[in-house]
Amino acid sequence: MLFTDLQIIEPILQALTREGYSKPTPIQAKAIPYILAGRDLLGCAQTGTGKTAAFAIPMLQLLSKPSAIKAGQRPIRALILTPTRELAIQIEESFKAYGSGLRLKQLVIFGGVGQQPQTAALERGIDILVATPGRLLDLMNQGYINLKDIEIFVLDEADRMLDMGFVHDVKRVITKLPGKRQTLFFSATMPNEIQSLANAILTNPEKVEVTPVSSTADTIEQSLYFVEKNDKRALLASILKDESIETALVFTRTKHGADKVVKDLVRIGIKAEAIHGNKSQNARQRALSNFKDRSTRILVATDIAARGIDVDELTHVINYELPNVPETYVHRIGRTGRAGLSGTAFSFCEYEELPYLKDIQKLIGKEIPRNTGHAFHTEFSGARPIAPKPAAQQGRQGQRPGSQQSSGRNHSGHQPRKFSGGRGN
Ligand code: AMP
Question: Residue 387 Cα, ligand 1 centroid: separation in angstroms?
Answer without folding.
Answer: 46
